[in-house]
Amino acid sequence: MRTPSFMPYAAGLAAALILSGCAAEEVSLAVPTPVTTPSSRTAEPPSTTPATTVDPVVARIPQAARADTQEGAEAFAKFFIEQVTDSFVEGDPDLLSGLFVDDCKTCINFRKTASYFESKGQHYAKRSFVTEHTSIRRFLHDDPVKFVEVAGHEIEVDIVDRTGARLESTKPNDNISFVLAIEFDEHWTVSAVHVEQR
Q: In this predicted model, what pLDDT tens digit does every residue of 115-151 receive, in sequence order?
């Protein structure tokens, strides 16, 4: 049985999951200035350390998935699919913030699904997709768009409400692949996702 096009691996959910999302918070890691107390001696002025700002998106990406290499591309693709599932488990669309371009339609629908779960107080009981392997489909140095396959299988998981009561469950799927088009600009981002039944 084919799954709905707007949510390629959440079979069994109502087709009414047409939804919306929001942006990530910025994180700033600043070194605090030491506090001086009055004393009889003249205190040396405190040394100042410039504030260090960490990109909130890069901070969430595992080290292995940050490199502009084939290995980095595969690690990022696997990480992205895990984040999609985690956004359903947590009911948190912000787990996907900054990881895809604005016109990635499948990515937008993944985020809308997580937003729907958030608004309804529902979530997956656990991850539904198990990665079996990743592989490079196309990685040409003169083409900024790289293609990576994340192959695996889906397991049946319960969709539960705030109390943990089961509402329905996803359908298992033994052979499914996500082919991600990704680009590197300071970090990898997803520009398209194609779902294949193997």
A: 999 999 999 999 999 999 999 999 998 999 999 999 9
How many CB atoms lie under 10 A from the CB of residue 41? 5
Q: Dihedrals φ, ψ of 136, to 5°? A: -80, 125
**pTM given for the model:** 0.75
Residue 49 tokens, joined: 């350390």
Nearest to 166 by CA among 125, 127, 115: 125
Topology classification of domain 68-197? Nuclear Transport Factor 2; Chain: A, (3.10.450)
As a whole number of angstroms, the distance between CA 158 and CA 124 comes to 6
Residues 6+ apart with CB under 8 A from 61: 76, 79, 187, 188
Tell me the domain boundaries of the chain.
Answer: 68-197
Give the pLDDT mean for 74-96.
97
Helix (H, G, I), strand (E, B) or coil at 108: helix
Return the structure tokens found at 12: 């069994």
